[in-house]
Design brief:
By secondary structure, the chain is α/β, with parallel strands linked by helices. It is built from ten helices and ten strands. It starts with a helix and ends with a helix.
Length: 286
């Protein structure tokens, strides 16, 4: 039992405040066996330079700490499907710089969100997004695997269904492009993973669309809102609308539990990151 729990990689998103290498120390302190970061301030376009000393310390800790894999997530503002020329240009500059930071730091995975094709058609957004991801593989010198994240759905998003994600993967057809599966997003997009039969149906859809081998990372988040609301509101694991049964079924799926599980849950008076990590671990083989 203990060995099984230790085999499952579980961690969370951690801060890079003050120095990017401190992410390793923060991850270690809260018991992560994997973790995710932003490579810059996610709320703006500006980039603060990472010093050579920070890069050196990050790489040393990457070698010496038994925490892997490390993933980075694209910042909030880039829209890789934007049909607005100004926004798209700024998005691609940020996208490129963030991926180049992954190369410099030796981060193997870079998670990107769906983007919006507001003002255009699905096909226009699809083509723009595919083109962006293809450029991203080149930006990363084929050293970084780009993970397309499923979205909470909505009229102008591309990755609300795994059928759409399959089409994206097939169009790109590159081993350096995989998938990040977000539990809250899937639930909000209409996949009812709150019960045994719902999870079984979901697993079947994954296997018949993108294939389980396409998922490189799981984002573990409960949902504050009901299934199919298209609202991306994360909740503590087991305390939201997905609930304990849903996560019990998901974490004990023989394929999914081989994936790294990274939490993006709230931190408040009810629970900390440590609490959510321990909660998820408690469900393994339960």
């Amino acid at each position: 039992m203990k060995e099984l729990i230790e085999e499952v990689k579980i961690g969370c998103h951690v801060s890079i405040a003050k120095s990017i290498d401190l992410a390793f120390d923060r991850a270690k302190e809260i018991g992560c066996s994997t973790f995710q970061i932003f490579t810059k301030n996610p709320r703006g376009w500006a980039f603060k330079e990472i010093s050579k000393e920070e890069i050196k310390r990050f790489k040393e800790k990457h070698l010496n700490y038994t925490i892997s894999p490390v993933a980075a997530h694209i910042s909030y503002l880039p829209n890789l499907a934007s049909l607005n020329d100004e926004i798209y240009t700024k998005s691609m500059v940020s996208f490129r710089k963030e991926i180049e930071r992954c190369v410099i730091l030796g981060i193997p995975y870079f998670v990107v969100h769906s983007g919006s094709f507001k003002g255009g058609t699905f096909q226009e957004g699809f083509e723009k997004y595919v083109e962006s991801i293809q450029k991203g593989v080149d930006f990363g010198e084929r050293k970084v695997t780009i993970l397309v994240e499923n979205s909470a759905g909505g009229e102008k998003t591309l990755t609300g269904t795994f059928v759409n994600i399959k089409a994206i993967l097939e169009e790109i057809n590159d081993s350096k492009v995989k998938v990040c599966f977000d539990t809250c997003h899937a639930f909000s997009a209409g996949y009812d993973i709150s019960n045994q039969s719902g999870v079984a149906n979901f697993i079947t859809e994954i296997k018949t669309t993108i294939g389980m081998e396409s998922i490189s990372i799981v984002h573990a988040n409960d949902s504050k809102t009901e299934v199919g609301t298209n609202r991306d509101l994360h909740e503590h694991l087991g305390l939201g609308k997905i609930g304990e049964i849903g996560f019990l079924e998901l974490i004990n799926d023989p394929d999914l539990r081989k994936k790294p599980w990274i939490l993006e849950t709230p931190i408040d008076e009810r629970r900390t990151n440590v609490d959510n990590i321990n909660y998820l671990r408690s469900l393994i083989n339960k």
